[in-house]
């Protein structure tokens, strides 16, 4: 079976009615059928009937958790590695899932919030036979913190700066006990340790391979091991029968990259694919209720946005950025996606622990108001017509309708005198290009964030002036002294109610500065074969690999 398909960036296209899309999908089936080598009367032909096939919406990167930032790669590493703390994925909630033990069986935060002590699970081994203990945890932190360590990796260190900037040192206080000594009080650090980028890698693997090769030889304590990999295209995972959390229910999982949404839908319809974990609206419309697939709406906290370059004209102008926010018709985007997304007009997503529903009748921060947008542009002093250059994915997780959405936004901005030139690229390429921060002349990009958006410190990761590349993912170079002060105060506030209030004040300041054009929050539906069980629609982009199975 081989499903991977690559396309160059498509031209922006206007939305087509549902019937036209379905007719196009049927017509495409004949063309793409040659790619679906297992399809036909017996969709399980060529594979064990218990093998679970997951369709990934983007290219599968090298599986080095400390270097990753995209959902596609992090979802795969989640099967291979364990973080110190996890979220509870067995319960559905409308808030950030509760924390539960993982490689740390318990943890305590000191009253001054300057030390987090973790009691580690005993009797755990990495899949290469290396014992898991406090020394292994210390080696992982050395990789991303200690420049003198033989396993230090500057690339991984830069990617993990969002966490390590708060850690002064890591003390081994017992064979299975570590203490994180913090530079500043940080009451919310345990939730940050659930980030899959802080998964623990085998020290033997870190010493045996060059930094660039760690992701080609992933070794963790996880529920699965990597059996075979055609990186970028396909990864085969085998069950770890000795997994400390109990043997998973599924013997084999294949993660297959299918970057064309239509091909992915056809593969799911014919049984070649069992699960799409970030389904697009068209895929839901085509597949849900047709007898083969069910749809889940986990609705985790997430944000989709146009991140703007605050260093280059004219997007360095706050008033101009506010105008762009008023120019965009978010309800039209929601309609385009068949209600799959909900308009978002500020930096805190629903489901974030600091989010608060607006009072009844309250106006949203950025209602669609083209006349106000024109007035603000005049006040900004930016002459129109003006041309902006933005980067955008042509596909990828959550981006199956990216070109159609960008087409709508282009029309909205054109109506207020702003010409939007869009450069489309494959999602992984987009992340690589923007990862260094925007260059002068590039005014931003269309992107989204689906991991870690449930924590209040999501604001810090996205908007802190200290987290510009290469030290973080504030790729639009936004900085505001008052916002940074509020984030500092919130981080060390032990009282939860006061801490959340401070984060909301910071969100108000960020919203007023408009470093993003806030667009929408995706419900992030999953399409699952009716043969799949063991997946709870918890508010997360992740699934529990120990319980999912194909009957």
Automatic annotation (TrEMBL):
Gene Ontology CC entries for this record: ATP-binding cassette (ABC) transporter complex; periplasmic space
GO molecular function: peptide transmembrane transporter activity
Domain Solute-binding protein family: 99-465
Keyword terms of this UniProt record: Signal, Transport
An individual GO BP term: peptide transport
Similarity section: Belongs to the bacterial solute-binding protein 5 family.
Record protein name field: ABC transporter substrate-binding protein
